[in-house]
Hints:
The termini are far apart. This protein has an eight-stranded mixed barrel with strand order 16-17-19-20-21-22-23-24, surrounded by six helices. A six-stranded antiparallel sheet has the order 4-3-8-7-6-5. A five-stranded mixed sheet has the order 10-11-9-14-15, with helices on both faces. The protein has 20 helices and 24 strands. The chain folds into three domains: 3-152, Beta-Lactamase (2-Layer Sandwich), CATH 3.30.450; 162-323, Alpha-Beta Plaits; 332-561, EAL domain (TIM Barrel, Alpha-Beta Barrel). The protein is an alpha/beta fold. The chain is elongated and about 115 Å long.
Amino acid sequence: MTSAISSAANPSSGADAPQIVNAPADRPQLSNILAALGQAAFVWDIASDAITWTEQAASVFQDIDPGSLASGAALAKLIEPSGSVRANVLLATSPASRRGEGLPYRIEYGVRASASAPMLWIEESGCWFAGADGKAVRAEGIVRLDNERRARDEQLLKMSQNDALTGELNRTHLAAALAGAIEEATRYRSSFAFMLVGIDHLARINDAFGFDVADEVIVEVAKRIRARLRGGDVLGRFSGNKFGLILKNCTVDDINVAAERFLVGIRDEIVPTRSGPVSVTASIGAISAPRYARTADEAISRAQETLETAKSRRSGSFSVWRPNVERDAQRRVNIRVTDEIVTALNERRILTAFEPVVDARTRQPAFYECLVRMRQEDGQFLLAPDVVPVAEKLGLIRLVDHRVLELVIAELAEAPDVRLSLNISPDTTMDPDWWAAIESLMRAHPGAAERLIVEITETVAIQDIDDVRGFVTRLKNFGSRIAIDDFGAGYTSFRNLRKLGVDIVKIDGAFVQNITHSSDDRAFVQTLIDLARRLDIKTVAEWVQDEQSAVLLRDWGCDFIQGRLIGLASSERPWSGQAVLPAAS
């Protein structure tokens, strides 16, 4: 070879591609430079297709027969994935603007010595030169081995596409694969199944053994699912304890068989971990697409819904999504009510109605329970049972509770002799914004706190005694009182009531309404009243329907009653004088 590479880039090209020039005297120096850089230089005569290499070519193209490098056609046979990549670059660029001026190029390709040999990734950069007709006549450049960078790029690509723990597709690429599967199945009129596999009670494993053991369980479950997939099926990690599966050409009838295969594979063998064996089950929610899901979002949403349905039945179960007219109708109602709630909040159409709670002996008003009402645009009202469950389900209850708090404090400020109670949802008990609002309102309206009773359901009280005790303590520090609503439904122990420091228990009306006919209900209610009295906790009986029930409750020592007998909630302010709640003795 009679050419050498200059150390400067071709200034007219504006690129870093080296230019080969005639400089025989520089050959020893050139050889040393190329060897140090791990590069080899070449001249490719396009007309004859002959390639001339410097001696370093052997170290770049490891274990490849030099004869396979002697011509462009021979080298092309080794190149993957496209053998014509080197020739194509000559066609893809425009001819030189001035004769003799080289145009730079840079390409990357893989070569193999044989089908079983490892891939060598080559980076080639250089210039090609045109003849008088503008066609390429010669190319000159250098090549270098680029395996390390290629491996690094592939690792980065894998990390961007795959879950770091399991090596399976991550959520983003799982969703992309799902969208592609729906498009393909729609085009070819085929069907497939999308499944969400959720590991049951993974949080318990975290608590009992630690997160590292839980990670071992996740990895093992992924392996067991992977081992039972067919060729072409797709597996990805959807979230912490959930995997998504795309099962190609899987009909509705096949889904049950496939689901059972995965459930058995997960549960039938103990998972060995560094902390000992762990028993694991999983539940599955599935949907057939594109029959019941036309988009990836729809498939994911419905699979999650069916997974929750499966988990609610029992651990290790399976559910498949099917159309449900009642469910769809309820969702339309939810959407409508949600929109109405937000609009009503903005337009100040969330109001309160007042239900009297009276002394069981004197029948004089003790306080009034404030119940939420929503005035619709046509003037009709939605009651609390129509508003609160939907607001809780859709995350709007915080806003509703904030508005009711404002209304109740405003009533207390306007009527200094009235006592009022309000109900708050489970989420509100831990809502820092609600606390900020009540503190601000209490400072703005001195004396209101002492006439406020806050009702929380028994279910909330027993979920986390310590958190609820903190909530109760903060309110009592304001001077407010605490009532446990629907008491008896959750069977809270009286030890917990004493630990919480509540002032009032409201006995669940489901037990009160039948005390004149049911000996079991009579015994239950009488026992609750007796125990509460021994703990100096006031009692309220809800849903009192008739005089006979009221007399029984009074004789048993119940402090207050409310219900149809006394009067239902009204948007009119029923108080005319002072409503006093007797102090606990």
